[in-house]
Write a structure and sequence with these properties.
The complex is a heterodimer.
Chain A lengths: L3 E3 L3 E5 L4 E3 L1 E3 L5 E8 L5 E7 L5 E3 L5 E5 L4 E6 L8 E9 L7 E2 L3 E6 L1
Parallel strand pairs in A: 2-12
Antiparallel strand pairs in A: 1-4, 3-9, 5-6, 5-10, 7-8, 8-9, 10-11, 10-12
Chain B lengths: L3 E4 L2 E4 L5 E7 L5 E8 L3 E10 L2 E4 L6 E3 L9 E3 L8 E8 L7 E2 L3 E5 L1
Parallel strand pairs in B: 2-11
Antiparallel strand pairs in B: 1-3, 3-8, 4-5, 4-9, 5-6, 7-8, 9-10, 9-11
Classes of the chains: A mainly beta, B mainly beta.
Chain lengths: 114, 112
């Protein structure tokens, strides 16, 4: 079974700092990769996704992620965070066959201090 | 606008009671999913369905059941609620099996 590891459970940054959240997955075949965000009191929303093509994908709100196949990684980045980026971030993966829904990481709680 | 709605949004129940959480989507998606979200575990898949009359067990299906009698609804039933099932439950749907998930707003269940 595939698994997803998010290295940082809690991250605290100041506004304008750069952000990188780590995500590694275990599945060795073709994968589809996602980052979801959950703002306080809200449901999950898709930030960005990778299916194929350019390994550097850009999402909403200035976020981007890079798929590095050799490292089984899909790290999320943002050059300059804002207070409004305070949220829970989830990395998720499913196999290229699409079976069994998505497997989520345990999440990273990001707090941005003004 | 198409949407996915869950009800109730909050429920408190007692151990041993049967509880059903409703999920209704208006996108006409074939694929629907139930996740639970717990601190330290992230989201874990409970059950999912790829179409009417199709249901499949996920990672943490014990104590839960689903039925899919139409495209729009995937109710989640706890036959005999346990305190370990206190959690926030999210329903989701997608057009493609591996596509973007659209999530409901969650149902917070407390089992006393």
């Amino acid at each position: 079974a595939q698994s997803v590891s998010q290295h940082n459970h809690h991250v605290i940054l100041s506004e304008a700092a750069s952000l990188e959240l780590g995500c590694n997955y275990s599945y060795g075949g073709t994968v589809n990769l996602f980052w979801y965000v959950q703002y306080p009191g809200q449901h999950l929303q898709l930030l960005l996704k990778y299916f194929s093509g350019d390994p550097l994908v850009k999402g909403i709100k200035g976020f981007e992620a890079e798929f590095i196949k050799s490292k089984f990684s899909f790290n999320l980045r943002k050059p300059s965070v804002q207070w409004s980026d305070t949220a829970e971030y989830f990395c998720a993966v499913n196999s290229g066959g699409g079976a069994d829904g998505l497997t989520f990481g345990k999440g990273t709680h990001l707090i941005i201090q003004p | 606008d198409a949407e996915i709605t869950q009800s109730p949004r909050h429920k408190i129940t007692e151990t041993g009671r049967q509880v059903t959480l409703a999920c209704h989507q208006t996108w006409n998606h074939n694929n629907m999913f139930w996740y639970r979200q717990d601190l330290g575990h992230g989201l874990r898949l409970i059950h999912y369905s790829y179409g009417v009359q199709d249901t499949n067990k996920g990672e943490v299906s014990d104590g839960y059941s689903v039925s899919r009698s139409n495209t729009e609804d995937l109710p989640l039933t706890l036959e005999s609620a346990a305190s370990s099932q206190t959690s926030v439950y999210f329903c989701a749907s997608s057009e493609l099996r591996r596509g973007k998930l659209f999530f409901g707003e969650g149902s917070r269940l407390t089992v006393l």
